[in-house]
Amino acid sequence: MRERHICTSLHFAGWMLVLLTLVATGCHRGEKGLVDDNYQLFEQAQQELAGRRFQAAIRTLGDIGLINPIETELDPQIKLLLADAYFFQAGTVNVVEAQSRYEQFLSFYPLHPRSAYARFQVGMCLFLQSEDPENDQEYTYRALRHFDAMTRDLAADDPWHTAATVMVHKCQDKLAAHEWHVAEFYRRRGFPIGMIHRLQRLVDGYPNSRYRERAFFRLAKGLEDRGDLEQARLNLDRLLADYPSGKLREQALALKDAIVTRLEQSEEQGS
Questions:
Q1: Would you state the pLDDT for residue 269?
Q2: What's the confidence (pLDDT) of residue 104?
Q3: Where does residue 3 rank: exposed (0-12), middle (13-18), buried (19+ CB within 10 A)?
Q4: pLDDT at 30 (0 to 100)
Q5: Disulfide engineering: 171 pairs with which of 87, 144, 184, 267, CB 3.0-4.6 Å?
Q6: Distance (Å, whole) CA 131 – CA 221
Q7: What sign has the CA pseudo-torsion 241, 243, 249, 255?
Q8: Lowest mean pLDDT: which of 1-10, 38-47, 222-231?
Q9: Domains identified in the chain and CATH numbers
Q10: What percent of the chain stands above pLDDT 90?
Q11: What is the pTM of this model?
Q12: pLDDT at residue 114, rounded to an integer
């Protein structure tokens, strides 16, 4: 019986030691003991994030609510700050975690005043997970759809509508770059049909792309080489109309003159 009592006492003492160790750890982290003011902890986490001490901010946010229940108005701010703490660390693992946190915030607080910010950040997480233009663009397409939906849902004077519009253009430019790289791949490998197909997608699908003027010219050349002179001329007309002061204007005019001459000669021979 005495042995059982001793064992029980030792067991209890062991648990007390663990508890004291946990308290001591908390005291060390706060230097003044465990902080029971959730707002104070939140402000501390904000300062840590502003100082780019991301892991410290995550730990501090994890301490909120350990002693006192989290206040209703504070909970969405905690969730959003925690998502930010992962996002601004960069790196794919952190970006994926941040996306999950922003989506969690939106699922809990879809009508919160900062929901548009969280929604924009989800799109940024998708965009940051996208590959270089030479590779598969699944995440760029997903980001484009996400930002495009934001531009449809938000009022035109909403700042996040403007930000989403900027990102729509960035996504489109990256997708246009992908089409350009694939077209160049086909050109170097001697597959003109594949090149023409990709360039056609670029000029028709991405009107704001910085690649578009070059794509028009390369497309016209490819069509000319294949003997499709009328389509080549039409694409040069589009180039000259859309880029009247473009860098390729003189080359486009010279190529168009050559194509028109060939078309006239063909008509004369036909008659």
A1: 75
A2: 97
A3: exposed
A4: 47
A5: 144
A6: 30
A7: negative
A8: 1-10
A9: 35-125 (1.25.40.10), 211-264 (no CATH)
A10: 82
A11: 0.80
A12: 97
Which residue carries 């502003």 as its tokens? 50
Report CA-CA distances (Å) from 30 to 33, 61, 167, 268.
6, 13, 41, 91
Q: Are 139 and 126 in contact (CB under 8 A)?
A: yes
Return d(Cα 212, Cα 203) in angstroms, integer. 5
The secondary structure of the chain, three-state, reads: CHHHHHHHHHHHHHHHHHHHHHHHHHHHHHCCCCCCCHHHHHHHHHHHHHCCCHHHHHHHHHHCCCCCCCCCCCHHHHHHHHHHHHHCCCCHHHHHHHHHHHHHHHHHCCCCCCHHHHHHHHHHHHHHCCCCCCCCCHHHHHHHHHHHHHHHHCCCCCHHHHHHHHHHHHHHHHHHHHHHHHHHHHHHHCCHHHHHHHHHHHHHHCCCCCCHHHHHHHHHHHHHHCCCHHHHHHHHHHHHHHCCCCCCHHHHHHHHHHHHHHHHHHHHHHC
Residues 6+ apart with CB under 8 A from 27: 33, 34
- Residue partners of 218: CB distance under 8 A and separation at least 6: 183, 187, 195, 199
Does 88 score more than 50 pLDDT? yes
Q: Which two tokens stand for residue 144?
A: 């484009």
Q: Taking the CA atoms of the chain, what radius of gyration do you get in angstroms?
A: 30
